[in-house]
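Chapter summary example.
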Amino acid sequence: MKGIYKAILLLLCLIVLVSGCGKEKTGSANAGDSQAAPAHEIGPNYRDSLSLNDENLFSVINDSDRIIDISDVNQLRDAVTNVFIARVDSIDGCSTTVSSGRFCPVPDEYGKLTVLQSLKGEISNSTVNFAKPGGIMSIAEYEKYAPAELIENHDKHRREAGLENIDKSSTYQRFFEEGDIELEVGKTYLFFANHIPETGYYLIDGVQYGAREVIYSEGSEFVNSILESDELQLMNNDTKEAESLRSFVDTYFPS
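The structure predicted for these 255 residues follows.
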């Protein structure tokens, strides 16, 4: 029965991420700005506090319509307000309203980042709030701010699957887009993001192309400018191979 429910949920409840949901494309470019990383303590990852198992966790695939080719670095760079390298200090939760202040059918994981270096756009603080499409939340929490017609539609599919008595408060949905990655607290990434002035959040865009891990070789560290280091590498989430971070920056963010 669970397999039937999964199939129905995946095939009939695909969520289309409409371009512009919670996005603003404002701000000026100020490439090459650098900020030193302050001392910090690793914060929480909300996923660790969830009681999940094969019986209470279902997957929902996000199918996003886009007007650009997000695998093209030039197009993605030009489409966002900010590009920066930052460390994930915490992943505090998952919400349908956090980034824009209004309901969006694809929820966002949210938390705090320490910005180590800005490549595009001005960032006034070294610590910023971020949101990234996807994540895990209970059905009850998801439906808290959802339109009535959306809830009715989802309930209809559950009835058809024989799951009309499901406990929404203890049943979870994992929202994800094919190819995307889950961020990890304490790791450093190159982010492509849009600043949302109304909420102050930086909304990570570009799926697996908009969040790429910066890899430190043994004994290496992040210096004041990435242009001073040849040791740092950047993960390609499609090929799972690493490339030179300095070469990437020189190519797409020339001074």
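To summarize the output: Confidence is low (pLDDT under 50) at residues 1-20, 22-39.
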